[in-house]
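Any chance you'd type out a single protein's sequence alongside its tokenized fold?
>
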Amino acid sequence: MPRLFREGRKSTRFRLIDAAKKDGPVQRLCRVLGVSPSGPFAWKERPACHRQRTDLMLLALVQAAFAVSKGTYGSPRMVRERRDAGLPIGRRRVARLMRENGMKARQKRRFKRTTDSPPAFPIAPSLLDEGFAASGPNQKRPIGACQDAPVGCEGADISYVWTREGWLYLAVVIDLFARRVVGWVRWSRPSSRPERPNSSHALSSRTVPRQPARSASTATASTTPSGAI
């Protein structure tokens, strides 16, 4: 009878037979895999070898660390934790044990906690009153401004982005009519003083002077003057 499988270690074939015995006769499985019918039964009664015993001990430690981490530890972090505790183990072995026992690390959601500005710091007024639509160039004006006063149609806001270097803060100036970014600046700490966003190329394309409008925000506590954005 032709062989359907590449021959592997007998213990591997015995495990396959033990897992598939509920789906067919053991004698037929043994014949297909090229082992004696008595082999699987002798293999099950054989005491565990040294590697199997150490696998069980290591598995208990890995399961405990996985539970403590609330399912966030993958095999690299698990190996570092065990090695720091004085247990020399290999990453492939830990990865195999985690895979065989259904332990898959879940990605911890990154969340940036924002802060409210101290009462002593002023909050920039909402000049646009949350109205960010403009029907044409130079038509967006602050609430209560004189209709004849020349005011630009740009908005500015601050956000934060997670990168490999950590949290980076980003200030962006957007043309409200064209719906495109016309200037930006980034910095690493919310309390530091950012440079002025580079929007000179956009300002030169208009014939009317303008000042970017901002929404009232308490996302960061900073002593930076509002005119810098």
About this structure: Helices lie at 10-20, 26-33, 39-45, 50-68, 75-84, 91-100, 200-203.
